[in-house]
Amino acid sequence: xxxxxxxxxxxxxxxxxxxxxxxxxxxxxxxxxxxxxxxxxxxxxxxxxxxxxxxxxxxxxxxxxxxxxxxxxxxxxxxxxxxxxxxxxxxxxxxxxxxxxxxxxxxxxxxxxxxxxxxxxxxxxxxxxxxxxxxxxxxxxxxxxxxxxxxxxxxxxxxxxxxxxxxxxxxxxxxxxxxxxxxxxxxxxxxxxxxxxxxxxxxxxxxxxxxxxxxxxxxxxxxxxxxxxxxxxxxxxxxxxxxxxxxxx
Length: 249
Description:
- With 249 residues, the protein is α/β, with parallel strands linked by helices.
- Helix content is 32%, strand content 20%.
- The chain has a single domain (14-242), classed as Purple Acid Phosphatase, chain A, domain 2, CATH 3.60.21.
- The protein is built from nine helices and eleven strands.
- Strand 9 (214-217) and strand 10 form a beta hairpin.
């Protein structure tokens, strides 16, 4: 099977010690206000000792630019995020590839491609996960294209109506083409996941993207945990981060 080259992206950030809530693939859209409200309510129940909230990509059904945060339909989400006492870390997915750190810097939130967490089990790697779908050659070509800094700069400066139209076309294409692709073409390449974990001295990966709940054992005692897409009744997945030296000593 021919595979696309693996591009890990920017170096992962390190998550602070403490209790973390993790969600993935929310695909929030103001056209579905009940989902925005439900997730905001879920965040409203966050414990006071929460060290941080980590989103593994695709918080939005489509992220078109910083203007989105000011839209009335997202106001419950923004207000709920502002009430989180710990860190808020947003990892880029395929639906929010245009998200930039400066878009949320005034709130003190972070944007990254991936993150590392020291735990009692060892070091864990968190990311959206689509970078490991290397058998889907056309998807990886598009993914690399949309991550070019020059193109991102240009896309973010297009009129809002143009960006909206492009997002609708991309979603329509995805809804038409992706279901016709065989599962092995859309799946993650486990060898690539394991190799990347080894390069980071990590024991496990926690990813989203495929909307599946699945655990896979990898070479060298490493493992991969896929998290399912968020639903209205989805609880947070909790992890407890240690100081880096404490977990890896």
